[in-house]
């Protein structure tokens, strides 16, 4: 595995130290491979995060310190600004409106607006008594598949357009790990077969595919003829280093080879291939505006366990499948244990206990479902530990509650307000650890704020989770969600019953 550099700079909370912070991060970014124009953007984003700490985390005149952690990642740089100052609500910052004249709009919120425009990922982490973190991630520049090939070489395989003839006779081929030189064929094949169906855009950047495979964060498997002609691809993608589960994703086969059963062989290979990180389960998201991807997932042993509504824009293009959608696209969540799980104790909220037991039963788990050992919420800390991830291009966000403090309901409401009003996120998914007895009490409390049931996902970063979702005043028609399996149809009907926006 490639060794990644890292350092931590502890710095006084005074504006005069900004050049020191910027110079340190700039030199690290230069070592990690960033060029001059991108270095300026990294410095600018750091400046905004730095100034947020100076202005909002500490009292005027207070002498204190905070940390700037700089890490090299497989695809670029990650900067963490960590402080133990006062609680701060980013929702109180007036959002900058770029459509207005600068003299009319003023500069309020401009820095935050720029920060989110010039780095690839921005996330906020409330760590309870350990303070708060802001994470900035910038990827090394890489060419998108559209920058590499001429448009004529990326024509999609439309059913109405004559394409390569399907090879009907059985041919010999190999299924194996990807070679570094094949990353470009993977990106090209993904685009030609599925357009932008894959919502994680890493698949369209060959250099990023190669970097993730080198680090072990992704396991790419290809099918190739005996002459090394590319046939198809499938991958497991870990959501984070050390995760016990990985996403089954980026699955496609070139049209001329779709009768060779290479998809099944690739998936079988993925399940038995030795992995750098231990793996106990796999999950997948399949779009619910057609049945094809759902059918593929279910056909390979994954079981539907949730549906996340309106996760992606209706403007996503599905080449060869659909010509456009009339509402935001939903996804069906499926899961498979790679080994029989040991029984664990879960505390599902009473309202959803029957459904949750049924979903786990479908997965083959034999857990214990019990009531909390106390009749009222019992908190061991005042502060909660909550992670927030924003996917701006898709208009959705994820919130993970790692630990409940007595401020949990207030903190979730604060985060929700920021996501709805400032970030203008359309769909939000909240992950709550059912191994924590407090989830029994907290899930109903969050549902009073407008969240409603979405499903379950075992072994997330915060434990076996119940997922709640929130839709930001968007028009949504359940009849336009296409559920393939009986499990998915049952889950969709249950979600609709729980949705507070559906008229009774």
Describe the protein's architecture and organization.
It is a single chain. This protein is α+β, with helices and mostly antiparallel strands. The chain has three domains: 6-139, Heat Shock Protein 90, CATH 3.30.565.10; 145-337, Aminopeptidase; 345-498, Aminopeptidase (3-Layer(aba) Sandwich), CATH 3.40.630. The chain is 28% helix and 28% strand. It has helices spanning 18-31, 36-56, 102-105, 110-118, 145-148, 183-194, 206-215, 262-272, 292-299, 353-363, 408-422, 439-447, 486-498, and strands spanning 6-12, 65-73, 76-83, 121-127, 132-139, 173-177, 218-225, 230-237, 245-253, 281-287, 303-312, 329-337, 345-346, 368-369, 385-391, 396-403, 427-433, 452-460, 463-471. The strands form three sheets. It has a ten-stranded mixed beta sheet with strand order 1-2-3-5-4-15-16-17-19-18. Strands 6-7-8-9-10-12-11 form a seven-stranded mixed beta sheet, with helices on both faces. Strands 13-14 form a two-stranded parallel ribbon. Mean pLDDT is 86; it is low at 316-323.
């Amino acid at each position: 595995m490639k060794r990644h550099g890292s350092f931590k700079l502890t710095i006084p909370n005074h504006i005069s130290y900004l050049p020191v912070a910027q110079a340190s991060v700039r030199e690290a970014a230069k070592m990690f491979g960033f060029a001059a124009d991108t270095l300026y953007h990294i410095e600018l984003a750091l400046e905004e995060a730095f100034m947020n700490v100076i202005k909002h985390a500490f009292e005027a005149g207070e002498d204190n310190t905070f940390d700037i952690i700089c890490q090299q990642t497989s695809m670029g740089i990650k900067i963490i600004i960590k402080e133990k100052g006062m609680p701060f609500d980013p929702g109180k910052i007036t959002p900058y409106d770029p459509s207005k004249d600068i003299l009319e709009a003023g500069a309020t919120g401009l820095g935050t607006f720029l920060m989110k425009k010039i780095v690839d990922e921005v996330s906020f982490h409330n760590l309870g008594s350990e303070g708060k973190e802001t994470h900035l991630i910038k990827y090394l520049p890489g060419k998108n598949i559209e920058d590499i090939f001429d448009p004529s070489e990326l024509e999609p395989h439309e059913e109405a357009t004559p394409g390569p003839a399907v090879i009907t006779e059985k041919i010999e081929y190999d299924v194996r790990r990807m070679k570094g030189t094949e990353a470009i064929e993977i990106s090209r094949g993904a685009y030609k077969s599925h357009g932008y169906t894959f919502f994680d855009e890493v698949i369209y950047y060959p250099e990023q595919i190669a970097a993730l495979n080198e680090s072990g964060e992704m396991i790419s498997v290809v099918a190739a003829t005996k002459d090394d002609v590319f046939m198809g691809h499938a991958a497991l993608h870990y959501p984070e280093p050390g995760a016990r589960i990985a996403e089954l994703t980026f699955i496609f086969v070139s049209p001329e080879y779709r009768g060779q059963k290479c998809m099944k062989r690739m998936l079988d290979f993925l399940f038995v291939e030795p992995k750098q990180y231990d793996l106990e389960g796999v999950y997948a998201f399949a779009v619910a505006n057609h049945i094809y991807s759902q059918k593929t997932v279910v056909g390979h042993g994954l079981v539907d366990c949730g549906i996340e509504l309106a996760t992606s824009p209706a403007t996503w293009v599905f080449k060869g499948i659909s010509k456009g959608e009339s509402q935001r696209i939903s996804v069906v969540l499926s899961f498979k244990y790679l080994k029989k799980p040991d029984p664990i104790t879960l505390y599902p909220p009473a309202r959803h206990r029957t459904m949750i037991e049924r979903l786990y039963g479908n997965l083959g788990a034999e857990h214990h479902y019990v009531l909390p050992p106390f009749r009222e919420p019992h908190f061991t800390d005042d502060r909660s530990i909550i992670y927030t991830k924003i996917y701006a291009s898709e208009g959705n966000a994820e919130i993970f509650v790692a630990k409940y403090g007595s401020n949990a309901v207030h903190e979730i409401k604060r985060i929700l307000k920021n996501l709805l009003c400032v970030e203008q996120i359309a769909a939000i998914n909240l992950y709550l650890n059912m191994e924590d007895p407090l989830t029994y009490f907290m899930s109903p409390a969050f549902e009073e704020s407008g969240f409603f049931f979405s499903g379950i996902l075992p072994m997330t970063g915060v434990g076996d989770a119940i997922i709640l979702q929130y839709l930001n005043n968007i028009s949504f028609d359940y009849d336009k969600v296409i559920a393939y399996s009986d499990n998915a149809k049952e889950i969709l009907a249950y979600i609709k019953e729980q949705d507070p926006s559906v008229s009774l």
